[in-house]
Each structure stands twice: as C-alpha cells, then as structure tokens.
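One record is given unchanged without comment:
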Amino acid sequence: MAGSSIPLAKQVGRVPSMTVPLEAEEEKRYQKLMEVVVMVDLHEHPMVCPENMDNFIEYLRLGDYQWGYEAARHGGWAAVATANTFRGMVRSPELSYIAFEDLVDEIGMMLADLSKHGDKAVKVTSAEEILQAKDQGRVGILPTVEHLAIGDVLHRVDVLYSLGVRIAGLTYNLQNYIGAGLTERHDCGLTDFGVEVVRRMNDLGMAVDVSHAGYKTAMDAIEHSQAPIIYSHNAAHTLRPTWRTRKDEELIACAKKGGLIAITAVPNSLSDDPHQNINCVLDHYDYMVKLVGVDHVGIGTDTLVGDHVAFHVKMLGRNFTRSIPAPYLDGLESPADGKNIIRGFISRGYSDADIKKLAGGNALEFFRRVMN
C-alpha cells in the first residue's frame, strides 16, 4: 500500500493464472533455459495500479507511486521497458495529449524510487547494462515512453534522453506534431518536424517506436530513420484484423531494415474468447517468426500491474468496451507471468537457440544496433 493509503493491486497472483503445461523432458529444458535466458520485455507498465481502478486518477494525482519490482522479478525478466505515460492522465483524459511536464514528473519519480531499491532493480540504458544487472541479480529498468509528448519542441527529445529514455513512441492514437496515430481519420505521414525528431533520435541513439503510429507515418519512419526501428507492442493484422494490429507489408519493411517486432498480450486484443489464454499470444509469435524470421521478433507484453480490462473501461473509455469478453488473459495476466512465455515457446516446438533470441537476445542485438 502506498503512503496515500489507496489499496494497490497485488503484484503476484492478483487472479488465478494458468501455467503452460509441459512434458517431463520439456520441463527439464525449461529449468535449464531459465538459468541462461535473458528475458527482455520491450513494453510494459510497471507502475503498480490501485486495486480499484475507480481510484486511479486520485492515485496519479497524489504522486505516491509503487513500482512492480516484485512482479518483474517473479516473471523472470532481466529488463523491462517502462512505457511511462500514466501520470499525464491527471490533466488529460486522452493519452495522445498528455503534457510533457507530467511525463517527465513520472519518469523522475520512478527513478527516485529506483534509487531506494538498488538491491532489487537498477536503471539500464544499453545491452551491456542489462547483462550486468542480470549478473548482479537485479531487474534492469529501461526508461521508455509510450509516446513523445514533446509538443513542437525538438530539444525535449534530448531532455528525455538525459533521463535514460532509450525507446520512444512517435505518437499515441491521434495526430500530434510528429505524425498521425492509428485512429486518426487522415494519416498524412511524418510531418517535417517528425522527420527532424527521427533524425534527432537517430543521432542520440534512441529507438524509434511506431507501435501506435498510423500506417503511412510508420512507413515514413522506416524510410527516414537511419537506424532500425521497433514495433514494441503489436500483433499481426492477418491473424487478427483490428485497428490496433499491423499489416504484413509494414512488418516486413521494418525487418528488412534490421528492425524488431514485439508481440503484445493485452487482454481481448487478440481473441474474442471469454476464456482466452496465452495461446492466442503464442499464435502471433508463430505467425511473425514465419513472416519476418526469428531474428526480428521479441517480447512486448504491454502488461500492467493491476486490472487491465478495468483500465481500458474506466480510464480509456475506448469504443470496444461494449464488447469485452474476458476479464483477463489467462497465463499472461501481468508481468509476473513472464516465465510462461518461455514455457509457451517450448510447447510450440522452438529450439533453445531460437527461444534465447525471442526471449531477449534479439532485443539486446537491436539495442546494440541502435543505441550509442
């Protein structure tokens, strides 16, 4: 419980969550793999949410946050990207229009809290620092932002970089000064300012994330970026044709330039089954590996520590809330379920070498290609 006395969600075991079943020999493989695999979640929300999402805005306003170090450790993560954004909802109900000051506040408070828990976790900004953190038995916290809430001020990219941000989304779902989001009626691509932003990110060594960018904006970013880009939390439109999933041609274009596609696990985004489980996520790994090759696929769960469905309904008010079949995604409900992904890869027949790549090896190589 935070000092604000708002009851918070349990970091582990909030709801019953399945364990992917394995045969005896597969179980032995799993145990050995977990000793050596480096698991990296390229998009996660480690801020611990209130137990009751009706209290979320008050929690954000008070600013006394807890962070999911316990959940990340339990999930087996060597490093988690933090996708900071939530504090912006205090002043803007639309995440596309959060204030830069609120974003910086959230990152700053997270880093201050991290400094008090150095025995559990540490800030990381490179592949080498992630490996060092793992060797020390600490979870690597990689500061990232859901999107660049910088308005039309280019040097704010530098400010975020100075705070440790190494992956940044260009947009959320609506238009900003950089380009168009996925739900914008007219996607005109990267603006001139957006091209400048991409160049600045390239110069600094900050990865360009187009997970919420419109199709043309994303394709423009792939074209203009001098470094590989990332879809940090997406899935295949061919398997699940929704406004949120991505088309084959853009995914292939990303991979051809050395980029990375990480698979989301947001409840009800990949399945309409009221009893949906981790298998609907694993289906997208299978498809993506076949589409772009195993070297260009990673993990980007977009999980949070709390009731994700209630967050969608009460905080985002999205139009799909009229049809939410499942209360959570069984087997990958939170960051604490991370090890289940490795079990899932084994159950799907991936080799140990490929599992190491998918779990985090590809992410580390991506960081080495992009980050100065």
Summary: The domain at 24-370 is CATH 3.20.20.140 (TIM Barrel). The CA atoms of residues 205 and 372 lie 5 Å apart. The chain has one domain: 24-370. The first strand starts at residue 39 and ends at 41.
